[in-house]
Amino acid sequence: MKLTLLAAAASCFAALSAPLAAMAQQAPIEVSIPSGGETVSARLLVGEGEGDRPAIALFNGFPSGSNVPRVAGELQAAGYTVLVPSYRGTGASGGEFSLDNARVDGQVVVDWLRHHDGIDPDQVAVFGVSFGGWLALHTAASDADIRCVVALVPADMGVIADRWGRDPEYAALWRSELDSFAADPELARFGAGGPGVFMQASIAGAEEARFSPKAAALADRPVFVAGGRTDPAAPFTDHYGPLVAALRAAEVPFAALEFPGGHNPNEAKAAAVSFIERSCFAD
To answer: 184: alpha, beta or left, given left = phi > 0 and alpha = psi -120 to 50?
Structure first.
């Protein structure tokens, strides 16, 4: 069993990307955002329309690289400004990759959007895929001013890290995958300790990384989640099921989509865009 876990959804999304010139009315702008003493590299797609625009931070799967998924261009064409960052330790961003750094990066890019010219600071949302879905949920849970959340095939890193600590075979499969990422500095940089130290730190922080206990923080905002019933990367019963149960128990105003496929966000892309148009920025 080969794991192409957090990268899988990013690859699915990127596979349907159009050339940038065709995808966007205005070409993406390369920006650098300070975070943790380093910089996060990101692409900004400025929404069409007059006045300050509603904005969406779009978090890719891991490793995030420089992919700009087609959905970013579709959201731009609908009038939203979209920021697509690469987490620290991935792509052209500086620093090292860790769960803690990624969570800081999530908040930093949202704050950057709020203060950027042409953005309505009261209308900022988060949209994430796979690892990015987990990050979007965490970012919104810690920031009450985020308007709404979209999480497609979210991979709860707390659930994954907890299993690393209990299941040596599962941890070994992941270690092999992370080693392959680390072999290419363009994909991922884990620092001097490499993937092994990253995994140990993640295991130690697994409970803090788990999202379900934080679901009540989203009780006043619309949330959209989608999961595949045959997902091998973020298994349905371990990730999507507990997330939906936690949102329901916390009385979060959420919409959920189950689809028969695997770790493929494109199965839910149209429903996610429709949700944003209906629910995210209504007065």
So the answer is: beta
For residues 122 and 55, give the distance between their C-alpha atoms in angstroms, rounded to a whole number.
9
Please identify which residue in the block is written with the tokens 């010219």: 117
- Token pair of 202 as six digits: 């993640």
**pTM exceeds cut of 0.85:** yes
The widest CA-to-CA distance across the chain, in whole angstroms, is 55
As given in the structure block, the two tokens for residue 178 are: 């992370």
Q: How many residues does the chain have?
A: 283
Vertex 6, ends 166 and 223: CA angle to 5°? 100
Cα separation, 116 vs 102, in Å, equals 21
Q: What's the CA gap between 61 and 6, in Å, rounded? A: 5
Q: How far is CA 227 from the centre of its chain?
A: 14
Give Cβ neighbours of residue 42 (< 8 Å, ≥ 6 apart): 30, 31, 32, 33, 83, 84, 85, 86, 109
Q: How many CB atoms lie within 10 A of CB 102?
A: 26
Nearest to 158 by CA among 194, 176, 134, 142: 134
- pLDDT tens digits, 223-263: 999 999 999 999 999 999 999 999 999 999 999 999 999 99
Question: And the tokens for 108?
Answer: 């930093």
Residue 7 to residue 166: CA distance in whole angstroms: 23
Nearest to 131 by CA among 94, 178, 173: 178
Neighbours of 3 (CB within 10 A): 17
* Superfamily designation of domain 5-280: Alpha/Beta hydrolase fold, catalytic domain (3.40.50.1820)
